[in-house]
Amino acid sequence: MMATRAPRLPVGRLARWLHGSYLFGITMQAVIGATQLIAAIVLQVALHTDEITELAHWTSAMLASQRADPLAAALLRSVHDFTVHPHTFWSVYLFGHGLLNLGVAVALFARKRWAHPVSIVVLSLFIVYQMSDFFLTGAPVLILLSVFDLVVILLVWHEWLELHQRRAQG
Hints:
mainly alpha; 84% helix; DUF2127; Membrane protein
């Protein structure tokens, strides 16, 4: 029994398909980056709105009492022991991740020479982080993001090789 081969795309057609996929991939990186930046800003605004409301409520209650209260003194001491709010972490993470995604995409669209290797490194670091986070949380979306990033890395690498070949041919 003879194995059937999948039809091969002509080289020109394959190159166009790969380049189109590359453009789609970096466009999606830009969209993801912009979405993450917007989410970080919304999260930060929401976080500060809650903090300002709580602070106003707390200070008004403190000013109303105006007496030496052991519980109030304990609360004042505990204010110094607060850790970073989880929303602050996610806001900073989303902002940094979004800025890097958007920056990489813009640099690739601008055809900067350094953009291809930098984007491969940045996306590889995203994959490492996402996989380590997946092993801690088990969130399947992290695998999907990592697979997408891996596909984009392969497309960026292919595009980079193509650019080197075109430059060498002069």
